Amino acid sequence: MRDTSRPSGEGLRPLREGLRPSPDALLAQARREAPGRGRLKIFLGAAPGVGKTYEMLTTAHARVREGVDVVVGVVETHGRPETEALVAGLAVLPRRTVAYGGGTFDEMDLDGLLTRKPQLALVDELAHTNAPGSRHPKRYLDVEELLQAGIDVHTTLNIQHVESLNDVVAQITRIRVRETVPDSILDRADDIEVIDLSPDDLIRRLQEGKVYLPRQAERALKHYFSPGNLTALRELALRRTAQQVDDQLVTHMRDHAIPGPWAAGERVLVCVSEDPRSAGLVRTAKRLADRLRAPFTALTIESRRSAQLGEAERDRIADTLRLAERLGGETATLPSQGRIADDVVAFAHEHNVTHVVIGKSTRSRWFELLNGSVVHDLLRRSGSISVHVVAGEEAAGAPAPHKGVRTAAPPRPGLLPYGAALGAVAGALGLGLALQPSLGHESTDLVFLTAVVAVAVRFGLYPSLATVLASSLAYNFFFLPPLYTFTIADPTNVVALFFFTLVAVVVSNLAARARAEATISRTRSKATEALYGFSRKLAGCGTLDDVLWATAYQIALMLRLRVVLLLPQGGTVTVMAGYPPEDELDEADLAAAKWTFDHGRPAGRGADTLPGAKRLFLPLRTGRGMVGVVGLDGDKPGPLLTPDQRRLLDALADQGALAIERVHLVEDLDRARRSAETDRLRQALLSSLSHDLKTPLAAVLGSATTLRDLGDALDRDGQGELLATIIDEAERLNRFIANLLDMTKLESGALAPNLAPHDLAEIVATALERADKILAHHRVALALGAGLPPLRLDAVLTEQVLFNLLDNAAKYAPEGSLVRIEAWQDTQNGDGVVRVRILDEGEGIPEGDEERIFDTFYRVRKRDRVRAGTGLGLAISRGFVEAMGGRITARTRGDRHGSPFPGAAFTLTFPVPRAAPEDAAA
Question: Are the C-beta atoms of 140 and 127 separated by less than 8 Å?
Fold first, then answer.
């Protein structure tokens, strides 16, 4: 539940007179307009290729024509001619080269921009991760520093990179984006411009090669860029921007004390009270909000009368607010500042509410004359807000459901407060008698009035009224003549006593009200703080065990009870967590827990069902149904929970249930992803078997059949050629079967490397000799550093890794190109590591595929669109290298920019043993 408060003020007027801007809004505006801070504009798109960078550059040219100093910090053109043409007309700051892992990366020169200090900097791809060694790990942090320096920034962002939408995007596209930007960056943006393109137009751009290279575009169309995905991402982008615009509108109204509402967007507010029809009102508001496609909020006002409500009424209000949350609405609880209608209208104006739903009053006319009518007051004060007064029959709702659990009665007030009240009067009497000779009896009434205020602040209304009564009698008896009698001779003293009593009653009432409001606020603040801390703790839990432990501990801590949590498992419920830890329940408790889970109602100790159990079991449910059961136990006899504790437990259980459901949803998503991956692997395996087994077998059978039938008619060269074909295809078939066996060993965990000290140069030489035939049409260069230390490797596995990488280079690099093998020792950290790099001059690695190429059966298309290989070689290489404690990475070479064949670079990293052996194994 969200508690909302507002500063007190006098009544509301239709005009701005008497209204003040919100202090929070003014503070936020001051932060935004702080001197020396730049402005941030984000060009937001649903997917790559919609034209974000193009629009940013077009806007930059317009600013240049206005005389603005614009500098390109970093813009990724992705080889698109129209984008490159726009960059050519702008001042471009050279990028900074960062060396990492034996390679170089081009990053934005942040220091150069700060030194240059243009009026406007263009920074593409806000979600980009900077190369290790940069000042900031993320590019959005670079942008923050530019803004702090007073530089305006234009940047681009795709909706899938927004942190809060990461799970939603993963569910839609089946791809989890690793580079994300916090939502706070979007919230602090001064302008957000949506670059929108229909899915059909974007797919057409992909097919025309205006977004990706042809081979990348073909793959993207089959996966990420499907029409359904693009439509969903487009809706996310539009909704997120609409939310930002909506927040800006409300902020503007608060900044300028505009009472509103401005009907730029519909909002529904429903008033909730202890009335049994409130649940029906919430459902009516939900239907109205659905028709208007608007959000809705359930509001309850806590007045002095709220403290006098019974527990059933308080439960009804809490249940109604929980119903609103389950229906997708927000909830708010406000302390009353006077008239309830004024509080409702003030909240509506502050939040730009356009529709208020309230129930028709069923109170008598006499009651409304004495106490006023909230409905009538709201109609008179609502101004341009539409008020929906719903009749009782239309909003008929069941009363608050029977909890099924007996709660402990709240403690009754004892006699101590009244004894303290009499003691305060006695003290005031003694002090008054002592001061009477010097002040006279006319001023001693202030001493009694002080006692009244003190008792009201400390003990509340009724003890203070007792103090008023005792003070009036004492003042009459001891200070008004004739003394020591309750008779009053002077009529003026009668008037004085009357007004003293009246003022004392009013003051005690005000002081008691202030005490009650302070107590309510303190209690609510403490509970809200605890619930907020609990929600933060749950948000950081990534596993089911962590969520269960955090929930059990928090409930036990706040309620001072023993707690167990049970989840469904194998047709029954099983203890999954507890505080203090407890793993076993007796049969009566298990039966009560199972009944609670099956029926969704409390059972066990203090409940109407199975009261003989040791524990009280309550359901954990969400909007999707039951998720588990919580069991409570304490040492004190009688009911376990007070009504306030029961409501607090409901809030804790709701948060815990939602966290459990979130973990289950993530597990369901992972299972769906694994199932899809299994299907993909199965299809890939069948395709690989049909192609990679059938092709060499067909070649072997064809060559063998030709030798058998036409061997005598062939010359020696023809026969040798056929025999060579048989041998080559048999070796190819053997490699394929060996790869399948190796992958089976890796996935089953049966691979145990035989690690021993080896000379890397000898292993490389053996791999080159083995790959001599597949590299026959390529040039090979070898550059091994001098003095390389022996490494603890499995020589057979390392040779296979090198062979697979050389085979990959031969497949994807054109004939006659150079394949280069490099090795050197990197000693930056102690003994450091040895790196082995294999570079080719092929087409490189498609952007975004640097990790996917190591997936099982994943194969990149060659230029002739013929799939090469089985898609197992690189996956096996990574498995072998990691089994030996090493690491393998891949990227497109950075030293062949502008070439149609940029080339790929595969880097193997092996740790150097700390205690180098004296002799290297051969």
Answer: yes
